[in-house]
Amino acid sequence: MTSDPILAIRGLGKTYPARANTPATTALDGVDLEIRRGEIFALLGPNGAGKTTLIGAVCGLVRPGSGTIHAFGLDMARDWRAARARIGLVPQELSVDMFEPVLLSVSHSRGLFGLAPDPARIEQILRALSLWDKRGARIGELSGGMKRRVLIAKALAHDPALLFLDEPTAGVDVELRRDMWQLIGQLRDQGVTIVLTTHYIEEAEEMADRVGVIHRGKLIVVEEKAALMARLGRTEVRVGLAEPLGAIPAALAPFPVQVGDDRLTLILRTTGAQGHERTIASLVKALVGADIAFTALDVHQSSLEDIFVELVGRKAG
Question: Taking every annotated instance into account, which residue ranges of this chain make up the domain ABC transporter (predicted)?
Answer without folding.
Answer: 7-241
